[in-house]
Amino acid sequence: MSTLVFVHGWSVTTTSTYGSLPTVLRDRAAQAGSSLRVLDIHLSEYVTFDDRIGMDDIVRAFDHALRGLSLPDGHFDCVTHSTGGPLVMAWLRAQREHPRLYAPIHLGHLVMLAPAHFGSALAKLGKSVVGRLKAWFDGVEPGQRILDWLELGSPESVAQNLDVVHGTDLAPGGTYLFSLIGDRPDRSLYDVVNSYTGEDGSDGVVRLAAANLNATHCVLAQPVASSTLSMTLTRAPRTAFKILPGLAHSGSKQGIMGAEPPSPLTVDAIVRCLAVDSAAAYVALCAAFAVENGQRDADRVELEPSLFSPRVHIHDPRSLMIFRLLDDRGEPLVNAQFQLTAGPEASADHLPQGFMLDRQANSRSPATVAMFLNHSVLAGEAAIADPRDPTKTLRDRLLPHPPYGAHVAPVDVTGLIRHLVASTARTDDLLDALGPHETTIVDVVLSRRVAEGVFRLTQNLVAEDFHNPLAGADIA
């Protein structure tokens, strides 16, 4: 018998959040015969709404709860929602890094519904007055430390995802990761206070790109005394990622987990994931999901009913770029200006119109900024016909403006400690670092220049005043 553990997301206070999905999956498994074993279901109840509780605390408690399960083969599978995804990923990381402290239990299938791997643009809303009012009415705190983790570009989420990017493929060891997310906000849940709840390119809470573990780490490093940034790319091991058209983050109508009855798209996708029994089968499902995602992207026009005429939504693939400005000594460059450029002249004026959808700095790490970009606008796209009349064009062809680059202008270009202005090489193109529905962490690393005036030796035994020291040349 296979044990299946459900793990909910942030701010949940009742197991009703799982709806009838566990029951439906158990019944579906019983009907699947030899392809899927009968499931022993366990529903998680964990606390996120206490401001003192952090992700590490929940990971430790999760491990303790797992030890209490009767697992004859030391094996379990897991279905998570929202924050539950990064929570279980954090447990896997802790188990790997501290094997003596965490239970030697094997997680086979981790099916993550709308996982907030790279956070949510709504995390800031949760910490605002609106979020605190909601928490007050619900009788719970907003869960400050978990919201800090979930804020775009948080040090914790970036570190965890860089661990994935630079880590090993888990599939050969029998651990299979799956990220499933809907592509349409439930517009009946739209919050006029915050437009993120109706944002295209998301499920109303989590952006598609933020749910995808097929991420890239791009390092733009400045060699000593050079004005050119060299680009190095590292891509994560391939992970199964599936877009479920028409589903939203939550809600009884469109919710990826909360819909009643559960969406057949959700149930079928989970069953396909749980049926994977080898690394080869996992690779095959990754490829199948990629084909299906491409079919979804080809049918990207949504006509939202409205009073007079339908509102048109073109669900272009988006990219999330989280860039961090620092120097080669790890010092954040808070006031440095980071600017994207385009074209052979490397000009910001040549960037295509509409490429930038949102920009949000992290409140605890102001030198870390998340940019939400329209990948189709940057990469170029064929004209889109109007589904109401194929003879008409809904949107003209989009022309790319390569190569895309970056220009960094620090404020401290003179003095005892200074940094040099730098730009990417004309032969590099940042579009190579961006994938549709994917996140790229861009580390811009400038050379920290230390002048010889910081420390001098003198043989003059007569007192000298050096409160206005001469900078002199830079230390090699």
Number of domains: 2
Portion in strands: 25-35%
Q: Give the overall shape.
A: globular
Strands in their spatial order, largest beta sheet: 12-17-19-7-6-20-11-14-13
As a whole number of angstroms, the C-alpha radius of gyration is 25 Å
What is the CATH topology classification name of the largest domain?
Answer: Rossmann fold
Summed up, the helix count is 11
First-last Cα distance: 65 Å
Portion in helices:
10-25%
Residue windows where pLDDT falls under 50 for at least 5 positions: none
State mean pLDDT (0 to 100 scale): 93
Spell out the CATH superfamily of the largest domain: Alpha/Beta hydrolase fold, catalytic domain
Supply the helix-strand structural class.
alpha/beta
CATH architecture of the largest domain: 3-Layer(aba) Sandwich
Described by strand count, sense and barrel closure, the largest sheet is: 9 strands, mixed
- For the record, the CATH class of the largest domain is Alpha Beta
β-strand number:
21
Could you please describe the fold and organization of this structure?
The chain is α/β, with parallel strands linked by helices and 476 residues long. It is 23% helix and 26% strand. The chain is built from 11 helices and 21 strands. The strands form 5 sheets. Strands 12-17-19-7-6-20-11-14-13 form a 9-stranded mixed sheet. Strands 2-1-3-4-5-8 form a 6-stranded parallel sheet, with helices on both faces. Strands 9-10 form a two-stranded antiparallel ribbon. Helix 2 packs across helix 3.
